[in-house]
Design brief:
There is one protein chain. This protein has about 150 residues and is mostly helical. The chain folds into two domains: about 70 residues, no CATH class; about 50 residues. Helices cover about 45% and strands about 10% of the residues. It is built from six helices and two strands. It has a two-stranded antiparallel ribbon. Strand 1 and strand 2 form a beta hairpin. Helix 4 crosses helix 5. The radius of gyration is 22 Å and the shape is elongated.
Amino acid sequence: MKLRSIYIKSGTQLVEIHVTHNLHAALTKLRDPHFERILWVDALCIDQKDDKEKAHQVGAMAKIYSLARRVVVWLGEESVDSALAFQTLEGTAPNDLYENQSSADENDENDARERRRQAKATRRKREQAVLALLNRAYFRRMWVSRSSIRI
């Protein structure tokens, strides 16, 4: 696994830490040049080599997240269908062209059949986008899968 370097200010020193590509991407995207942001990153804050500490911290994660005022979750880099997945979950996904045709074509059975086929294909594409999002590693974490996720 190729690691990337980040630098953390500790007092007056700058400490180099090697992190995964995924964490580096998250920190880069979450960085805001206009104000300081304090982040708790489990991969950095929990000693990953200490199984006892990891077990203790993981056991507390569901409670920690449920009591937090604000949680920012990194689901990974954006994929081709990420926007469609979020639009679908928000109920703001654009309607398919065939779903919006005027009723002037209603008498034409072939057009109606094609509109139904296209609408079904659109629904399937939206479902696949949401499933792909929910199949990301974040949702397999112990404290997430144990929590009640409401969508």
